Amino acid sequence: MSSQKGNTSRTRGQKYQNATAFKNNKYGASVQVKIASAKVHDGVCQHCKDILEWKVKYNKYKPLTQPRKCVKCLQKTVKDAYYIICKPCALSMGVCCKCGKEKDVVIPLHTKQEGEEEEGSGPASEAQKKKRKSSRAEDDEHDGDFDSGSDLDQSDSSEGTLDRQSKVTVPHIASLKI
User: Fold this and answer.
1) pTM assigned to the model
2) What does the alpha-carbon distance between residue 46 and residue 101 come to, in Å, rounded to a whole number?
């Protein structure tokens, strides 16, 4: 046995080895896998970032459903899974959001104002704005005037014999003889 006392060296190699690496999206990526893969782990040290990336890679990452309590301010403001400190507290104290230690943060936290400025500038965001405007304009063209493009109005105007104010009278049910 390999765990027997005094038997520290093994003579053979590993018995079972995987032929292919694990893929968390082998049968098509689910919504949870897509969200976890797209998540940016900001405000954490390199060690914690590696842990979170491993959890995502091997399908062990489980997102939060409700906010957690921050260990510093004791408010329910922690919205990211596996974090123990909320982003404002970590930003003010300069600590890792996951382990709470004063280490070098790999991806720094952004304040809301900086995030809005980054979204507002740049060629990618301008292209997205143009796409939104063009799609809205196309929607307005199709939805704007229902009367102008219908085939019924064209047939009515070409005949000219129908009066728009004339109404068809429907007899009352009691007066019908069955």
Assistant:
1) 0.55
2) 12
- Residue 133: phi, psi to the nearest 5? -65, -40
Q: Which residues contact 176 (CB under 8 A, 6 or more apart)?
A: none
Amino acid at 173: I
Q: Summarize pLDDT for 32-54 with one digit per residue, the tens.
A: 899 999 999 999 999 999 999 99
Q: Report DSSP letters for 55-69, one per residue.
A: HHHTT-----SSPBP
- DSSP secondary structure of 21-71: ---TTTT---HHHHHHHH----S-BHHHHHHHHHHHHTT-----SSPBPPT
Task: Measure Cα distances from 102 to 1, 89, 112, 164, 176 in Å.
Answer: 44, 13, 23, 79, 89
Buried-state track 97-132, b at ≥16 Cβ within 10 A, e below 16: bbbbeeeebbeeebeeeeeeeeeeeeeeeeeeeeee
Query: In the beta sheet, which residues pair with residue 105?
Result: 45
Tell the residue number behind the tokens 């997205």, with chain if given.
128
Every domain of the chain and the residues it spans: 25-110
CB atoms within 10 A of CB 77: 16
